[in-house]
Write a structure and sequence with these properties.
Number of strands: 8
Structural class: alpha/beta
Order of helices and strands: HEHEHEHEEHEHEHEH
Enzyme class: transferase
EC number: 2.1.1.33
Catalytic activity: guanosine(46) in tRNA + S-adenosyl-L-methionine = N(7)-methylguanosine(46) in tRNA + S-adenosyl-L-homocysteine
Radius of gyration: 23 Å
Largest sheet: 8 strands, mixed
Function: Catalyzes the formation of N(7)-methylguanine at position 46 (m7G46) in tRNA.
Distance between the termini: 93 Å
Oligomer: single chain
Family: Belongs to the class I-like SAM-binding methyltransferase superfamily. TrmB family.
């Protein structure tokens, strides 16, 4: 994809050092210093124009967010969306957001092991030709890199409108014996999930009635333990409800009465 933008794009992002990062290497292992706190760090790989990452940063002020894309023009557009989103809250500069210009191929050079808590993959390029499978962001070679940088609470949240990419991704996660939850083949079938932030693409696809597929992949040891505990609690609750229903149901046996 090539973007033909206005003149001065590079200068525009170079002048926003508190928001736009053009070289990740000096920050590897030190992203908490960039944000000035120890809050969890979530990243979006392939953020596009930045609607999702900007709204996420506003909704979750106690989480740090990093949007990653490789094009100057997208970084510039995302910076405008981010500033507009925070300006609506009366804040001039996003306090918990960084926009990183980088190629995802080198993600191991951007983040240190255990530095990231969540990775968002939203409507990634499906690369439909079989010969391009290794370029898909859910290919096992990428997932292995994600697993290195994710911490003990690490998760991957993946959304796509491509059925073929979703099937490929589920198989990729399964082949790596990863735990998946909240698998949806039609995310907005019953109603629009306003508890989830929509991307630009997603809003258009929903209007057209396209299916949106989504899955959460649980990676870190603490995240896995919490997931298993939640499943166990849900199973106990289901069993309790079944027992309660059985007790409350009226008996169909004939009543036994005493006659004097």
């Amino acid at each position: 994809m090539r973007l033909r933008g206005r003149k001065g794009i590079l200068e525009a992002i170079e002048n926003q050092k508190e928001l736009c990062v053009l070289d990740a290497k000096p920050h590897k292992g030190r992203w908490h210093e960039f944000f000035g706190n120890d809050n969890p760090i979530y990243i979006e790989l392939g953020m596009g124009k930045g609607k999702f990452i900007s709204e996420m940063s506003v909704r979750n002020p106690h989480i740090n967010f990093i949007g990653v894309d490789m094009y100057d023009e997208l970084i510039r557009r995302a910076s405008e969306k981010a500033r507009a989103a925070w300006a609506a809250q009366g804040v001039d500069s996003p306090p918990n957001l960084a926009l990183l210009r980088a190629n995802i191929e080198g993600i191991e050079d951007m983040f240190a092991p255990n530095e990231i808590e969540r990775i968002h993959l939203n409507f990634s390029d499906p690369w439909p030709k079989a010969k391009h499978a290794r370029r898909r962001l859910t290919h096992q070679r990428f997932v292995a890199k994600y697993m290195e940088i994710l911490n003990e609470r690490g998760e991957i949240h993946f959304k796509t409108d491509s059925q073929s990419l979703f099937e490929f991704s589920l198989n990729s996660f399964a082949d790596m014996e990863l735990v998946m939850r909240n698998i949806s083949l039609h995310l907005h079938k019953d109603e629009l999930r306003d508890d989830l932030v929509l991307t630009e693409y997603e809003s258009k696809f929903v209007e057209r009635g396209n299916n949106i597929h989504r899955v959460e992949v649980v990676i870190g040891a603490e995240a896995l333990a919490a997931h298993r505990q939640a499943k166990l609690a849900a199973q106990k609750n289901d069993q309790s409800e079944e027992t309660s229903t059985a007790v409350d149901e009226p008996s169909t046996a004939p009543a036994i009465t005493s006659e004097g």
